[in-house]
């Protein structure tokens, strides 16, 4: 129910730029660039392709970037295959849209260090939705 309310709020407010949403869990979503055209908004179960750049909020140090590899990350949205801040912060997004997600430790890696990311880190991701295959269209193909 809470996700629906957040999604409805984001959809309603998405006509205003710049758009910043501070969600109850401490996740901050900044829409930095709207898509020129939006035929579909992402939903849980969609297969998405995202470009991203991840930095530590405290130092600004980059720890990962798909842009550097030249290949977007592909995953199922809402399936727990990425950190919770992504699963929540990338809902209702249009292809071509860019967002900056500021993710508190509770929605990132928590109190455990992961590679170059220290325990308890707030993460900042610049994200861009490159492509989406809706869960509904996948079901229709079966």
Written account of the structure:
The protein has 142 residues and is α+β, with helices and mostly antiparallel strands. Helix content is 20%, strand content 32%. The chain has four helices and seven strands. Strands 1, 2, 3, 4, 5, 6 and 7 form a seven-stranded antiparallel beta sheet that branches. A hairpin with a 5-residue loop joins strand 3 and strand 4. The longest helix has 12 residues, at 2-13. The radius of gyration is 15 Å and the shape is globular. The protein starts with a helix and ends with a helix. The model has no long low-confidence stretch (mean pLDDT 87).
Task: Annotate the secondary structure layout.
Layout: H1 2-13, E1 19-22, E2 28-33, E3 47-56, E4 62-65, H2 66-69, E5 73-76, H3 84-89, E6 98-103, E7 123-133, H4 135-141
Antiparallel strand pairs: 1-2, 2-6, 3-4, 3-5, 3-7, 6-7
What portion of residues is helical?
10-25%
How much of the sequence is in beta strands? 25-35%
Helix count from the secondary structure assignment: 4
Structural class: alpha+beta
Q: How many DSSP E strands?
A: 7
Q: What order do the helices and strands follow?
A: HEEEEHEHEEH
